[in-house]
Every structure is written in structure tokens, then in C-alpha cells.
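G., before I forget:
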Amino acid sequence: MGGTAPGDEVRDPGLQPERTRLAWRRTTLSCTVVAVLGIKLALVDDTTAAGLAGLALSALLWIGFLAVAHRRIRALDAARPRVLSTRGALLAAGCTVALAVCGAALIW
Amino acid sequence: MSRFVQSLRLWFAPQRIRDEGETPDYRFSLANERTFLAWIRTALALIGGGFAVDQFLPDLRWAVRVGLALALLAAGVLCALRAVNHWIRCERAMRRGEDLPVSRFPAVLSLTVAVVAVAMVVLVLFGRAG
């Protein structure tokens, strides 16, 4: 929660930055659930090299998503946050896609 | 298709979007971002559903189980990619002061989810025998 600096504008009464921040939190939670399911998928049968790789990759992708979300949540702690960077959007979507691909490889 | 290539170029040259039009009210951009996140959550839910089908329906035949799971995963991937694309197109439209892009993706996705859901009900009820 940032304090209002002297030159700052009045905060938006619609609390848009806060709502957006909560949206990022919800999305991180969803990502956590999927990552946990993915890790369970990797551990389902005997420990194999592929399973371990899948486990490590799922954990890594989850951390990647967490990092993107954390950066954005920090950036949203302003009265007038800047637009989400294309890189951030691509990274978030990329982690999602990679989790799916990783899971597909494990299921196959 | 050229529209898609155009927005694909924007994906990897993000500074180009700032060259166009005027910066919209930050609240509109934040609303666009929340929509993007909602689509990402939808994608994550589809992917999680794919994982769940594989893990929690072990009685199904292998081909059916893997087919359903992969279909859900593919839908999740499509949904995530489309989320980025739609976010960029909306952002650009707002900068240019154009109408927001319309899309038939939500209709297609809901029909797909409905079909998959019916298929799952049928499979869980009658698939055990097979």
C-alpha cells in the first residue's frame, strides 16, 4: 500500500488498480492449482527421468508466473499505474501455454 | 488472416503500440488487463480440467482418457494465445479510438466446453463397461 505522495492524484474511487491487483492474485492462485495438478501428474507412477523433468519444469513455470504477477502487483501500487507491458502479458500467457504443453507431454 | 499477422507483429514489437494514437484513460487499460487475466484464468481452468481428467478418470480406456485430456489442454492453449491477441487488439483499438474488436471465440469456446461436458457425462456413465 503506497502512501500518497504530495503531487499524487486522488485515488480512483472505482479502485481500478486494486481490482486489477486482486485479479492478478486470483490468476496466480489458479496457476498454483494447475501447477500442483501438474506436479501430481508427474509423480503419478514410478519416478522416471521424464517425470522428474516434468516436475521441475512445472515448478519453474509456476515460479515464472509468480514473478510476472509479483512485478505487476508492485507496479499497480501507484495512483495511475502504467499499462501492462506486452512482455508481461506474453510471459504470463507463455507460462500458461508451457504448463499445458508440459502436462500434455506427461499425459502422453 | 492478415489482421492476425498484424497483431502478431505487435506481440514482439511492443513499442509500436505506443506509436499509435493516444494513451487512453488508464482505467480503460486496467479493465482490458482484467479481461485478459479472466481469459488466462479460463485457460488455466481448461488446462487444470485436462490434468484432472487424466488423473481422476482412470477407469476410462487409455485412448478416450488421453484424447479428452489433450482436447482440454489444446483448448486451454488456444484460449491463452487468444487472450494475448485480444488484449493487444483492444489496446490498439482504444489508442486509435476505434470500436473494440468483436470475436466469435467466446461462442466457439462455450460450445466446445458444452460438447466436452456432455461427452464426459456420457463416458462416466457408460464408459466403465467399455
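The radius of gyration of chain B is 19 Å. Residues 49 and 108 of chain B are 18 Å apart (CA to CA).

More on Monday.
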